[in-house]
Amino acid sequence: MRRGIMFFDVDEQNWKIWIGQQEYETFTGMNFEIRIQHRYFEACFEEDYQDCIVTLEDDVTFTLRLVEVYKVRILAEELMPALDLPF
């Protein structure tokens, strides 16, 4: 399990995960753990129209706040490196 942060990239207008010096993309259906008030919860990343939401432990759903930085833990298999493509 790798630890990092999830934040909203204003330039690209999407959520990213940063672990160490590497940036990763988020995608619908991505499973990870998100820290809320000193406790990690199992979560699933989803998109609903313009909003990005997280479903905690298949029960509670909330909208991610664009100004927040969230601490996350994620399995390496779930990570997709962000590519800097020229087009």
What Rg is obtained from the alpha carbons, in whole angstroms? 12 Å
The main sheet comes to: 9 strands, antiparallel
Q: Overall 3D geometry?
A: globular
SSE ordering: EEEEEEEEE
Put simply, the count of helices is: 0
On the 0 to 100 scale, the average pLDDT is 89
N/C terminus separation:
33 Å
Proportion of residues in helical segments: under 10%
Strand content: over 45%
Protein model, in words:
By secondary structure, this protein is mainly beta. Helices cover 0% and strands 59% of the residues. The protein contains no helices and 9 strands. It has a 9-stranded antiparallel β-sheet, with no helix packed on it. The radius of gyration is 12 Å and the shape is globular. The chain starts with a strand and ends in a 6-residue tail after the last strand. The model has no long low-confidence stretch (mean pLDDT 89).
Summarize the structure.
The chain is mainly β and 87 residues long. It has strands spanning 2-9, 14-19, 22-25, 31-36, 39-48, 51-56, 60-63, 70-74, 80-81. A nine-stranded antiparallel sheet has the order 7-6-5-4-8-1-2-3-9, with no helix packed on it.
Structure keywords:
single chain; 87 residues; mainly beta
Describe the secondary-structure layout.
Layout (H helix, E strand, L loop, with lengths): L1 E8 L4 E6 L2 E4 L5 E6 L2 E10 L2 E6 L3 E4 L6 E5 L5 E2 L6
Antiparallel strand pairs: 1-2, 1-8, 2-3, 3-9, 4-5, 4-8, 5-6, 6-7
